[in-house]
């Protein structure tokens, strides 16, 4: 089967950073689905895994943790899906990725593709949707169905992939959304997605948020990087919660968190698959829920750009776009 893979961890400007390779077609066993991949999305995790070591990968390492496609075959223990089903999923970082014609994926982390979306539109969603959903509803404990209506959430880095779906999930839950964006195009984007207020995270945010009438906010999500930690601590309400998706070596003073009895949560959407946690199937359930919300018109895809075909040259171009740090929404590559 065709695949895009790496053998050496190189800068994306190097033509050898990602290569077109031919690999054996895998076979489904256990609870695995064999999916014929139709479209993939590129995320910052792809660029981080590609660049992080000086090792040599043999056999070649296939990246990609966002896909949509069609189930070609199922393992003997599969109960949720059947061949011919259209699906979308983010995958498992410990297994070969989605930048291949066929991929094995555990059915417990797979959702039925939204019927109203194309494969490209669906491929933009899984990783960021799982991250945002788990951040709000599993980590911060926000009521998905409106029980916390009227509470405020500050989404730092709202114009990116995770922030773009997070705005919509927060609005659907009845929250007042304060989104951060630093450029006119991303400010327009987050407003279009439903943000109630927009502040610039490249300027002092405490003053901006308080000028909007918020002394504190109920929830804070850090979806870009932890240089905003002290701002988040200053703005979180007493007994409120902060969630972050960024690991960091930066200082994280905790005294004010203790004084406020505030909580800090980490979100890593691969945790359930990596450790096969007892609640692993919750990712199937949440992707199914979001698909229903999309088909009902309450949530939209965050796709911003489609490239084609799925090959090393195009995937390298997508990595380069992600590494600029200027992308809004999601970049998808479709069709082998």
From TrEMBL:
Family matches, as SMART domains: PKS_ER (SM00829)
Protein's UniProt keywords contain Protein transport: no
GO molecular function (one): oxidoreductase activity
Keyword Cytoplasm belongs to the record: yes
Pfam families associated with the record: ADH_N (PF08240), ADH_zinc_N (PF00107)
InterPro entries per record: ADH-like_C, ADH-like_N, ADH_Zn_typ-1, ER, GroES-like_sf, NAD(P)-bd_dom_sf, Quin_OxRdtase/zeta-crystal_CS, Zinc-ADH_QOR/CCCR
Domain Enoyl reductase (ER) positions: 13-333
Entry's localization field: Cytoplasm
Keyword line: Acetylation, Cytoplasm, Metal-binding, NADP, Oxidoreductase, RNA-binding, Zinc
Any one GO cellular component localisation term in the record: cytoplasm
NCBIfam families per the UniProt record, alphabetical: adh_fam_1
Self-association state and partner proteins as the record states: Homotetramer.
Family (UniProt): Belongs to the zinc-containing alcohol dehydrogenase family. Quinone oxidoreductase subfamily.
Protein's name in the database: Zinc-type alcohol dehydrogenase-like protein
Organism: Bauldia litoralis
Source organism phylogeny: Bacteria, Pseudomonadati, Pseudomonadota, Alphaproteobacteria, Hyphomicrobiales
């Amino acid at each position: 089967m065709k695949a895009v893979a790496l053998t050496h961890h190189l800068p994306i400007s190097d033509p050898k950073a990602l290569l077109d390779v031919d690999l054996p077609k895998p076979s489904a066993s256990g609870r695995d689905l064999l999916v014929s991949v139709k479209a993939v999305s590129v995320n910052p995790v792809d660029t981080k895994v590609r660049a992080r070591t000086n090792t040599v990968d043999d056999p070649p390492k296939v990246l990609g943790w966002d896909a949509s496609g069609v189930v070609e075959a199922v393992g003997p223990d599969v109960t949720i899906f059947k061949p011919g089903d259209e699906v979308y999923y983010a995958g498992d970082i410990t297994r070969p990725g989605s930048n291949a014609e066929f991929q094995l994926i555990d059915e417990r982390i797979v959702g039925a593709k939204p019927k109203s979306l194309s494969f490209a539109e669906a491929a933009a969603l899984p990783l960021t949707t799982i991250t945002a959903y788990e951040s709000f509803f599993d980590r911060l404990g926000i009521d998905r169905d409106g029980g916390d209506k009227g509470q405020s959430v500050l989404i730092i880095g709202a114009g990116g992939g995770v922030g773009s779906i997070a705005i919509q999930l927060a609005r659907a839950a009845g929250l007042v959304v304060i989104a951060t964006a630093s450029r006119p195009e991303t400010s327009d984007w987050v407003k279009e997605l439903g943000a109630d207020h927009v502040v610039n995270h490249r300027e002092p945010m405490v003053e901006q948020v308080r000028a909007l009438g918020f002394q504190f906010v109920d929830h804070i999500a850090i979806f870009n990087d932890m240089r905003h930690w002290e701002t988040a601590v200053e703005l979180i309400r007493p007994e409120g919660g902060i969630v972050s998706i960024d690991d960091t070596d930066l200082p994280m003073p905790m005294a004010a968190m203790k004084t406020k009895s505030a909580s800090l949560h980490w979100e890593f959407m691969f945790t359930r698959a990596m450790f096969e946690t007892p609640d692993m199937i919750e990712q199937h359930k949440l992707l199914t829920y979001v698909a229903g919300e999309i088909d009902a018109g309450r949530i939209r895809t965050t796709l911003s750009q489609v490239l084609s075909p799925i090959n090393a040259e195009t995937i390298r171009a997508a990595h380069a776009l992600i590494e600029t740090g200027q992308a809004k929404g999601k970049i998808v590559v479709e069709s082998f």
